Amino acid sequence: MSNKTNAHHGFPWGHIVGLILSIALTLLAAGLALYTDLSLTAIVWIIFILAFLQAIIQLVMFMHIKEGDGAWQIGKMLSAGFIAIVIVYGSVWVMTNMH
Length: 99
Prior knowledge:
Strand content: under 5%
Distance between the termini: 63 Å
Order of helices and strands: HHHH
């Protein structure tokens, strides 16, 4: 029997760690936005960085991005990243330039 079939049995420690890290990053971003005297630009950049870290944690811990064929995973992640960048940049562009 393959070791892969037994990998899903037992306590899901990876999911627990991912959940705790996601909650911690969310609370850190909220605390940063609510309780610091940093400039708006600094707060936005730090929140973007924390959001990027949280996305990576969720991809690795919950969506098992490490599993599967590497070439397909890279292609899927690049296309998803491109779509996300276009959506975010397009939204910011529309909100700032289309009074």
